[in-house]
Structure formats: structure tokens, C-alpha cells
Amino acid sequence: MTDLKYGGLVILDYGSQYTQLIARRVREQGVYAAIVPYTASAAEGLALHPAGIILSGGPESVYAPDAPRLPGWVLESGLPVLGICYGLQLLAQAFGGRVAPAAEREYGPAALEVSAASALFHGLAARQPVWMSHGDRLEAPPPDFHPIARSANSPYAAITHQTRPIFGVQFHPEVTHTPDGPAMLRNFALEVCGCAPRWQPEAFIEQSVGEIRAQVGGDHVVLGLSGGVDSAVAAALLHRAIGDRLTPIFVNNGLMRQHEPEEVVATFRDEQGMHRLIAVDATEMFLDALAGVTEPEAKRRIIGGLFVDVFEQAAERSGALDWLAQGTIYPDVIESAGTGRPGAHVIKSHHNVGGLPERMKQRLVEPLRDLFKDEVRRVGEALGLPEHIIWRQPFPGPGLAVRCLGEITWERLEALRAADAIFRAALAEAGMLRDDTAQAFAVLLPVRSVGVMGDQRTYGEVIALRAVTTQDFMTADWARLPYELLAQVSNRIVNEVPGVNRVVYDISSKPPATIEWE
Questions:
Q1: Catalytic machinery residues
Q2: Which residues of 286-320 are buried (b: 16+ CB within 10 A; e: fewer)?
Q3: What long-range pairs does 124-131 form, CB within 8 A, spacing at least 24?
Q4: Of the N and C termini of the chain, which has fewer Cβ atoms inside 10 Å?
Q5: What 3-state class would DSSP assign to 390?
Q6: Which residue intervals of 223-282 are DSSP H helices?
Q7: Those residues with Cβ within 8 angstroms of residue 165's Cβ, 6 or more apart along the chain or in another chain
Q8: How far apart are CA 153 and CA 45, in angstroms?
Q9: Nearest CA-CA partner of 414 in 283, 305, 229
């Protein structure tokens, strides 16, 4: 079986905030797309035998002395090329065109007029909305290029080479504000590059099962199971490949949401047949270690270190120490590598990639490392996992410890759990927990306020409700929830959750705020 990743597209990352979105949009067309830094060598860039190359946007100006350049191997490869925004300007520069600052910067929606027939716009309307985000523009196309589309501020909003399959667009086809963008990328991938739409969940499962069996042989694999979608799908995929030679270990740290520990065990041991699942209740151990700790980073360090200790002890008792499996996904790999910009620094050391303690000697199995989150969910559906696992909203690694601001006690955690359950239940009942909110939760604040209940003065704690909408979690907006729903949730919380007498709703966007409070 030919590797599903062969014959797809490779994306050179010039630092655009949308680079991962380009890859996701291409993959939605059934074509694998890999992201590599623009500094990649020809061997690295062509390692998966791509059928075409996409140049991402970027924050630089091509005429700046230290601006990122187009590697020689891109044009020498003879492959079709699509340059997006900065990528268009790089192509223009390479072929002798002229790029200069625009008299008027173009940020936001624009009307694109297709001015010439092109494979890129095949089957699309002659006039369509697109999203622009640039301060420079192409002033004069290279001699061998001709324009195929324009906008009010960009006379050369799209260009193509006269004899070679090379295209450039000044707008961003990958964002939702360009409705026909996916069709353009599909035209490029399938029609121009001749890619076959083979990147499908069922095919991925079949290939992964074979790869896992070849990698681990007859050995045993241990996996940390959190109940989140990544570790859940990794567990299901491994279980299909090696059956009872998989030992999932679930550590209940006392910091999960209401009823989640019981649901995880019931789903994976009873429903999915993972009979070797080990469930460790380490609640008291974690609460003792966190007693009196209020600083969020200290909480994270304590929880992370203690989790490794508990996990290792359980793994040693199980004897399943040949391989360690993790639910690492593609964005984790990209972010930990720090690819994209000149002199790029690591964005974060992801716990699934860079945070393994030296003393954990198992070899590593990462069956999902080529998938984005939406692809993980589709694979989970194909594997038959229940919807409440597949569509579980993101939950921080330290759990409720970073939503219980201030000191962590069992009583405060129980209050937070109850308030959070009320909020999420109301959203679920209104049909807003999956598509209308990307993440929704309650936060217990380290402040008290005066209230009146039953003619008695109260001095209780405050719950903040947080719900956001987002496509990629890099930016997010607060969800415009109905006032009636918020009133219902607030009323239930102050009446049903002991010690809470006030509820507020967080209307901060990211940026400047983050989604989580800590």
C-alpha cells in the first residue's frame, strides 16, 4: 500500500498565522498537506514526493534586506506552485516582477473580479468575495506572467505563468471569509497538481493499523488515557491494531469535571473492551500536594510532576513497559518545532512532544502525529467512539486546578464542578454545546461578594461563566449566548451550589485575554 502522505502537497511556512489553516483546507479536499519551514532543504521539502507546492503568507516585506527568500529548489523541481499573499510576492520577485508598498493597505473583505480563464478559478463565479490582509502589492507582474483576477486595490490580485503551472493570489483562500477558497485549493490540488483524494479516515485507519503492528511487533504498549479526544482516539486506534497488548492507564487526579472519571472507565473498559485498562484514584495525593498553592504555574508544575510519578508506578506494576503511546497531534509537532519565521523560537514546549522525563525509557508510539484536531474527530467517528467522547470540548491538562483560582480545596472543587455541570447541561439542552460554542466552562474566582438570600446577608464566592467561538483557538470571540439561558444558569447556580451567591459572564475576546483564566 502506497503511503497516503505521498503525492500530496507541501506548504512552505513563511510565518503566516493561517499556515495551518491552509493545510487543513487542503486536507478537507482529501489531499495530504505537510508543513515545512521555508528554510527546508530540497531533501526535506520533497521527502514525501509532493505533487505540488504552496507558499504561505508571512509578515515580512519581500524587498526588505533580510526578508525570507524563495528556495531555489522550489522552481527547479518543476512542480506546480501556488503562492498566497507573501508567496505571490516571492514568485513575482523571483521572476522579475515589482512589489512595493500599496498606497492603501488592504485588510478585510474585498470583491474579486476574475479577468481571465484559469484552472484555479474553474467553475467559480466571475465576481466573488475574498479576504485581503496585506500592506504591499504587486505593482508590475513578471514578463512571463499575466493577471487572472483583480480587486479595487490590487490590479494583480491573482496571476499565472503563461506556460508553467505557477499561480499567485494576493488574497487568502484558506479563511472562511473567502467562501470559494476551498474550491480554489481543490482546483489547484486535484486539477492542476493531479493529486488523488486518498486522504480519508478509513484509509488512514487501515494504514495506521499496519504501521503500528510493524513498529511494535509483539511488544506491549502503555498509554496515558485522559478522556480527551486525542488520547481516546489514539487508544481506539492502538486497540484495533494490537488488542489486549495495549494497557491504557487513567489517573484520576480529582481535578476532572463532574462524573468524568466514571464515564472514562465505563466507556473504554466496558463499552470499548479495553480490559487491561488501569484506573488509579490519586485524588488525595494531588490535593495534598496542591494544598496552599495559588500560583498557576506552580500548580501546573506540581500536577505535571506528580502525574508522571503516578503514571510510571502504574506502568511498572502492569509490566507493559515496551512502548509508550501518546496522543500527539500535528499542531503539537509544528508548535514544538517553532517553524515558520526567521530565527523562529519555540512557541511552547508541548507536554506531548518535548516534556517527556528522561527517566521514562519506553520507546514512543504517536499514531496521530500527522492529524489536525478535526481529522482526529473524523477518525474517532470511523472507529466507532461515542459522540460525547469525540466532541468533548478542550480541557486543560491541569484540569480544574486552573479554573479554581486561588487555593484548591475539595469543597471549592465540588462547587466548581456543580456550577460547570449546570452551565454545560443548559448549553447541551439548547443545542449550543457543539457548534455554537467551541469551549464553555465555569471558573471559581478567589473573591467573595455580599449578597442577600432569604432575608439573610451572605458573603459568598463568585462563579464566572466563559463561552467562546473560534475556528483555530489562536483567536477567539466571546459567545453571544441568549440572555434567557444565562439567567436560567445563574439562577440555578446560586440556588443549587453551596457558597456561591454571584454569577458573572466573561465578554473578553482573545486577544487580549486568553480563553482560560490561568
A1: 85, 172, 174
A2: bbebbeebeeeeebbebbeebbbebbbebbeeeeb
A3: 124/180, 124/183, 124/184, 125/180, 128/179, 128/180, 129/177, 129/178, 129/179, 130/157, 130/171, 130/172, 130/173, 130/177, 130/178, 130/181, 131/171, 131/172, 131/175, 131/177, 131/178
A4: N
A5: helix
A6: 229-242, 260-265
A7: 52, 80, 81, 119, 192, 193
A8: 34
A9: 283
**pLDDT (tens digit, 9 = 90+) per residue, 71-83?**
999 999 999 999 9
Whole-angstrom distance, CA of residue 380 vs CA of residue 482: 32
Please provide the size of the chain in residues. Answer: 518
Name the E strands within 232-315: 246-252, 278-281
C-alpha 239/C-alpha 412 separation (Å) is 37
pLDDT at 103: 65
Instruction: Encode pLDDT of 154-189 as tens digits.
Output: 899 999 999 999 999 999 999 888 999 999 999 999
Q: Is 470:450 a contact under the CB 8 Å cutoff? A: no
Give the C-alpha separation, 204 to 224, whole Å: 22
Contact 355, 263 (CB under 8 A): no
Nearest-CA neighbor of 407 among 489, 482, 299?
A: 299
